[in-house]
Amino acid sequence: MSIDLDLERYIERHPRAADLVASTALFCFTVLGGTLSLPEHDQPDELTPVALLAVVTCVVLLWHRSHPRTAVVVAMVCVMTAGGLGYMLNPLLMAPVMAALYWLAALTDRRTTRVYLFVAIALLQITVVVANRADMPLVLQTLAPTIWVLLPVAAGSGARIRRAYLDAVQARADYAERSREEEARLRVAEERMRIARELHDVVAHHMALANAQAGTAAHLARSHPDQVQKILDDLAGTTSSALRELKATVGLLRQANDSDGSLEPAPGLARLPELTAACQTAGIKVTVTTEGIPRPLSPGVDLTAFRIVQEALTNVTKHASAKAASIQLEYARDRLTLTVTDNGTATAPAAADAPAAGRGFGLVGMRERAQSVGGELCAGPRPEGGFEVTTTLPLHPQDAQNAQNARDTRDAAPKEQTT
Predict the structure, then answer these.
(1) Which of 22, 26, 2 is nearest to 14 (CA)?
(2) CATH number of the domain encompassing residue 295
(3) Which of 294-303, 345-354, 401-410 has the highest mean pLDDT?
(4) Which of 375, 234, 362, 363 lies closest to 302, judged by CA?
(5) Which residues of 309-326 are buried (b: 16+ CB within 10 A; e: fewer)?
(6) Residue 391 has pLDDT above 90, yes or no
(7) How far apart, in whole angstroms, are the C-alpha atoms of residue 355 and residue 366?
(8) Between the CA atoms of 281, 284, 287 and 288, what dihedral angle is there, to the nearest 10 degrees?
(9) Domain for residue 185, yes or no?
(10) Does some domain include residue 241?
(11) Are strands 324-331 and 285-291 parallel, antiparallel or unpaired?
């Protein structure tokens, strides 16, 4: 196997030298074939004609890579001429034709190979009939040359199929490599976008609350100094929470071997009371109402819902000049509808596809989050005043709940049948 591979590599590196060696060997085979005959058969004693024909054929075969059809035609004409001169058609004498047909089958398409093969067989049969050597059975004279040209065509077709298969394998490998690189770049871009959204949500929300709490404390410092301490304590809690979430988000950028230290679990709707309490310390009263039966959410949907509510309240704190806001959770059979409204002046940026210069990424980030889990989001001013953000998210119950429901169904089925 290693010798064959080394020979193939050498032929690929030195094609002209390999062709010269092959043509020289074919010349020797052809001349030797001209000396072979049966005892009862009279064959020309002169080797000069067959040698000249062998020279012409083997010289043309040097260009078989660029002109395989011409090589087959010239070789076939020379073999027919030798047969007409009385030389016996044997495998050695027909070696140039066999080699030309092999290269034709290996280098061209199947249709071309088939046409030239049928023509070569027909010409050989004509040559045999014209020469009509009575000392040999006609079946043997016609069948043997046919077999000798069929064998190299079969071998050449096999070589062509093998080369096509290897090229296809290489092409698939190259495509898979390009696809892996493209997928890796896409995943890196998506991960960067996800981390950017997380950082924006964490920093913008907590900094907006901290700014509002600091402003409230400064306003009450003279008129109600007894309330300032509580607000400052809440401000410390807000900044501490911001640092914890920022650390957890930045922790996603760590390498796989930097596994020391545990990260906090991703926030969800279970932290709504904490979120509303922080807004109340900033002077905004937030009410939460729930319609329908609360359903378990997948981690991705739960995080998305929390971040959208968080960003909506951040916009209320920063832009709306509102004193109150409401959060409505509506659970349906297959979706969760979140609505965040305020009674402010609706100065929040309009829901645009891209932020203008100097504007934030809040609404764009909320829309991207909703779309990432298959949901929708719309936002805009209300006719009666204030601003409203509404998003619809698909419900994906946790796998454990599905498994429990399936087990309950299976346990209940036999009882129904017995009754």
Answers:
(1) 22
(2) 3.30.565.10
(3) 294-303
(4) 375
(5) bbbbbbbbbbbbebebbb
(6) yes
(7) 12
(8) -70
(9) no
(10) no
(11) parallel
